[in-house]
Design goal:
With about 400 residues, the protein is α+β, with helices and mostly antiparallel strands. The protein folds into 2 domains: about 70-265, no CATH class; about 275-395, OmpA-like domain (60s Ribosomal Protein L30, Chain: A, 2-Layer Sandwich). It has helices at about 95-150, 155-205, 210-265, 275-280, 315-325, 345-365; strands at about 10, 15, 25-30, 40, 300-305, 330-340, 375-380, 390-395. The protein has an 8-stranded mixed β-sheet with strand order 4-3-2-1-5-8-6-7, covered by helices on one side. Helix 6 links the parallel strand 6 and strand 7. It is elongated, with a radius of gyration of 31 Å.
Length: about 400
Amino acid sequence: MIFHRCWFVLSGTLILLPACDVMWPSLTGEEPAGTPPTPRVSQSPALPQARPIQPQPLSLPAAPSVATVPGVNPPPRLGDTDFQPPGVTPGASTGTFVGKKVEELREELKALMDSVSQHNSELQQLRARMVQDSQRYHGTIAAVNTRLQVGTTPGNPILVRKYNSAQADLDRISADIGEMNKLATAATGDSTMSAFLSESTRAAFGVSGAIDDDHRQLAILEDEVNRTVVLIERLLKEVSDDVRRQTNYVASERRNLNVLAAGVKGGEIFGSSLITHVAAAGSGPPEAARPTDTSGRRALVVIRFDRANVPYQQALYAAVSRVLERRPNAIFDLVAVAPSGGGPARVALNSTKSRRLAEDVLRSLVEMGLPPTRVAVSGKTSGGAKTNEVHLYLR
């Protein structure tokens, strides 16, 4: 299977072996005391030598359009209909019982239209606010991703502040959705009232003692009530569609923010959440994946922890992302591998450490958006291992 032909080895030096279908540059990093490693790109037949990234001034570049920045999805479209009721046609009093009933119904329709007009005004204000919040959010996210794309320091405090600002903007969009839900509830009351008016108007035609002008005014009133019923139903449908799209979008962006947080922490861009590759196949198995025997299988990714702060996240994200693009239902085995030499006490210590490292790798995968149900974690010892390792297998 093609996925078993493409594999990575990660350690103090990150290497992509030629067995991979697409060649990537090998990455290395030095670790001066108190300073996170800065990756550099070595010579490759396909790619030229990259120059080291120089320190950047305390400013961010102008944000490009949302569609050109990895990991930034355009916001869903909001409805744009103006649900302003046309008003009620005035009528003359006839002095009959039915005529008085028409006047009462006309006043109730006026009150209903006033309510619809108020709710429409609130809706237009909400939409304008959501557009402003979305534009501010995406401008911030685009700026952060642009900086990550060209390279920056891990945990850059400027990007941390920008990330926190984006998170606050997304919270505001979520609050706007809550307000729109309240508006939908209020509009539901209008719908109930319009149904009552429609029924009352039809019933008035059957009351005895009416003159021709009463029925003429009733017919006009019935038409206006029916138009109001349709207007309210359209308002409710459009608001419901807005709430559904925006709710799904905010949930998706929260997952992408988790991935962005990992990118800001490591100073490199990952892209969108891995859940986007999984979405086509649903949320994954209903139960957590159970460990399977990996004997004789070739690892997709091997991470050798032969030094502190091994920068494995980018290569791990790339490997898993490529697999999920072709197999959205893919399940993975994450194996903590400890050296078997050095006596029982040393083996026990290494097994505990390798298990903890595997949990860190799993945490990184979850932050990148991979559902934890897609990964089974297990451990073993190996005579061929010189240091603690974590292997990722495609099942």
